[in-house]
Specification:
With 75 residues, the protein is mostly helical. Helices cover 44% and strands 0% of the residues. It has a domain at 23-56.
Length: 75
């Protein structure tokens, strides 16, 4: 099994082991659970997450206001 580098960048903490003898059905059930969890978190925290990511990426603008004039944007 390869070393996994999480997107969080954390290199320390509690190790989480995934069994290497799950059936495909068990592995799929866990993936569905994680998808459901992500969807629930997103539905509740969508705007705060988007605002946080905008700040982290140095983007400007208000997420609550629609773009007024697309012709003014430089592409």
């Amino acid at each position: 099994m390869k070393n996994h580098h999480p997107s969080s960048g954390l290199t320390f903490g509690l190790e989480f082991l995934v069994s290497d003898n799950w059936t495909p059905e068990q592995a799929w059930a866990v993936m569905e659970l994680l998808d459901d969890l992500r969807d629930r978190i997103w539905s509740h925290y969508r705007l705060p997450i988007q605002e946080f990511l905008s700040e982290e990426r140095g983007m400007v603008g208000d997420l609550h206001e629609p773009l007024s004039n697309l012709e003014d944007l430089d592409f």
